[in-house]
From TrEMBL:
GO terms for molecular function: glycosyltransferase activity. The lineage of its organism: Bacteria, Pseudomonadati, Pseudomonadota, Gammaproteobacteria, Lysobacterales. It is an enzyme of class 2 (transferase). It comes from Dyella koreensis. It comes from the Bacteria. The keyword Glycosyltransferase applies. It catalyses: GMP + diphosphate = guanine + 5-phospho-alpha-D-ribose 1-diphosphate; IMP + diphosphate = hypoxanthine + 5-phospho-alpha-D-ribose 1-diphosphate. Residues 30-162 form the Phosphoribosyltransferase domain. Its EC number is 2.4.2.8. Keywords: Glycosyltransferase, Transferase. This is Hypoxanthine-guanine phosphoribosyltransferase.
Amino acid sequence: MTTPVAPTPMPPLSAALASADLLFDRATLEGVIADLGRRIDAALDGERAVFLTVMNGALIFAGHLALAIRTDLEFDYVHATRYRGATSGSELHWLREPLVPLEGRTVLLVDDILDEGHTLKAVRDDCVRRGAKRVLIVSLCTKQHDRLVDGIGADFNGVELPDRYVFGFGMDYHEQGRNLPGIYALK
Ligand SMILES: O=P(O)(O)OC[C@H]1O[C@H](OP(=O)(O)OP(=O)(O)O)[C@H](O)[C@@H]1O
Ligand SMILES: Nc1nc2[nH]cnc2c(=O)[nH]1
């Protein structure tokens, strides 16, 4: 029998929140998402797209966004992670690939944050390999810095962020704080 490993203690969310700045509150984000929905409807022009959510971080954004889009959608998700609860990224781990055939489809690729772009680039390239005819990247937020990998960008972006680690509205602080109804930035 293997000896159980004690869980790594997590830095407390309460301490992070006490010194964090609230960048965008829920009402502001809901307004931003409503506007994204209108713009996406215009781009789809009646076409039924595959709404592909990148788990886990995009879960909350995806739910709000889907309700803001009036065009009917087909839902699927991928699970790809490269931060795995840490505050800096490493190699991308695929935990779940799409099941809906993407051949000839328009894909709305939905994620919470475009930071260095490795995650969305890998998932976008995978959709193209699967034969998607058009991949529209939708990100709730994009971080402002000069570390973005070449060849990736959001077709639809909600808000721009300073170059600080953020959490809330789906995004985690050591796997905590995802259900905070706003976006917070660590000092
Ligand atoms: O642009 P990048 O530098 O690649 O970072 C962006 C990615 O990082 C987060 O995922 P994470 O790996 O933390 O997994 P999670 O979605 O489960 O939080 C976020 O949800 C994006 O998918
Ligand atoms: N929670 C969270 N996940 C990220 N993934 C890439 N950048 C970030 C960030 O600032 N916060």
